[in-house]
Amino acid sequence: MKSYLPYAVVAIIVATLGYIGIQNRQPQEAAVIRATDEKIIALSTFTIIADMVSEVGGDKVESLSLTKPGAEIHGYQPTPNDLVQASKADIMFENGMNLEVWTEKLKAGIPDVPVVRVSEGVQVQYISEDAYAGKPNPHAWMSPEQGLIYVENIRKALTAQAPQHADYFAMRAAAYSEEIRAVDKQLEEALSTLPENNRVLVTCEGAFTYLTNDYGLTEEYLWAINSESQGSPQQVAKIIEVVKEKQIPAVFCESTVEPRIQQEVVAATGARFGGTLYVDSLSSTDGPASTYLKQLQHTADTIIKGLTNQS
What predicted TM-score, i.e. pTM, was given to this entire model? Predict the structure, then answer.
């Protein structure tokens, strides 16, 4: 564990800041970092990574997320309070691949906190069009196979941080990996039931490349990466043409995106709005995607119901 300021000083800081929005395993409840806690304080850039860290770390780790459930992580802007909390962390986890470009200033302010890129070693898929053409698609966790690489990177990092708990982290990582493999099998079996003419996934953001590649679907989207310039008339017109040409029965949008523009596609084509998918953020604890595993399952269920018009 890292050394802290004298307890009295930290107590004053904590009392002043109160609960400021860095999330634990139940992200809707803000957490205060305690100077006397012997757990590893692991700070993640967003809720999905924080959930993975919590699963591997168990009761040896206090896993926190900078962003709340439902937050749009692409354009997030760290606050001064984020820097205060980050400075108290023992380790920080990020996805990388140009997802959280906003962390650069944050990391510059915490040079003594090691930062681990959990996507290191994944089989990168690249964006093929839009202004981001040629850049890596950062949403690798949407593939359970790639998610296993995240878990292993987390295990290695936690072990390096607290080698005395190496066996504990290895045991939890192995058990969690088996759960991910089981979900992978469930998704493969479920998505294989889609008929050939209903295997096109139309979304707002192109965040499902890894998932569609894994399960033999075709991906279409309004824009490649969430940004301030999304939803142009040209983007909407392109998808309307694709939906009409391929007679795609349903389109979808993500929980962090306003579905209004996708509703324009629905109105122009007669396709259904198939439902809300979770990608960049988990839901609240009482929502349908409160953990990484539930997120994957909810995604598959929503796609199948939407494309097959199940109630």
Answer: 0.86
